[in-house]
Amino acid sequence: MPLNDFKDMSERYELLSRQSRLVEAVLAAPGSEPSSLVPSGLQALPGIRGGLPRALQVYRSHAVALADRALTAIYPRLRDQMEAQAAGSFAALAWACWRLHAPAQADLGDWGEALIGMLARARAEQGLPATWPALARLEWAMHRVERLADVSPDLGSLALLGRLPAGAVRVVLSRQVELLRCDDIESREVLSIPEEAFGQGPREALIVWRDGWKGSAMALDAAALRWYEALDEGLDLERSLLAAGPGFDFIAWLPAAVTRGWLACIETAGVAAVMAPSSVR
Description:
This protein is of the alpha+beta class. The protein has two domains: 3-129, no CATH class; 155-268, no CATH class. The chain is built from eleven helices and six strands. The chain has helices at residues 3-26, 51-74, 76-85, 89-100, 114-126, 131-146, 160-163, 185-188, 222-232, 237-244, 250-260; strands at residues 169-173, 177-181, 197-198, 203-211, 214-221, 263-268. It has a four-stranded mixed β-sheet with strand order 2-4-5-3. The protein has a two-stranded antiparallel sheet with strand order 1-6. It is elongated.
């Protein structure tokens, strides 16, 4: 390697190392002294009162505010509940999420799912309300479907329902649909959040989808839950209806699926579907 190239690489490595240490100083744990972590020789710009410690504080304050704004947009209900219990608690959690699980790219809309796991751990360690992780899961699901690309349903494929027997067709859900199971007691607390429900029985799960530009949620009874699980497994219409049981009303579900955007298409059961990753969570 030519000497000049080696020198350039060495200088770039040194720059990256110094930048990394600066980031570590800004993201330092509470109670530590950030100015002790910065690269040697680093100074604040002339005219900044307080020098380097003040400059680092400004950087940190900006990051704290940015983390709070980004996660407030994703978890508005969670923020309201946390702030009602302890002012500033959500901002502190958002900053901890930023420090421990920093954004990997510039689009902050893809960042923040790690907060769910942090809440679950804090629940066990600090006695936080058990319903908060479930609420965070719901709000993250609604945020995620909002960011999905537009999908146009194949409504012409509905004609297959009148041409072929139920065992020969498959109902395919839109990729903008996500099913949230609520098996544990804590998760069941969020079942009361949606105003609407499909099915007459007790609420057992939630369906989340994009309604226009916003995420929406609806509660499902046990029969509707079994129906969605059967569709997610790729079963044909006949077996899906059998799995759902007599409590499920397909005649009521189909027009709702078309108008709400739950339906992607109807396809022949013999055709290998291009399946999306499981929508059941």
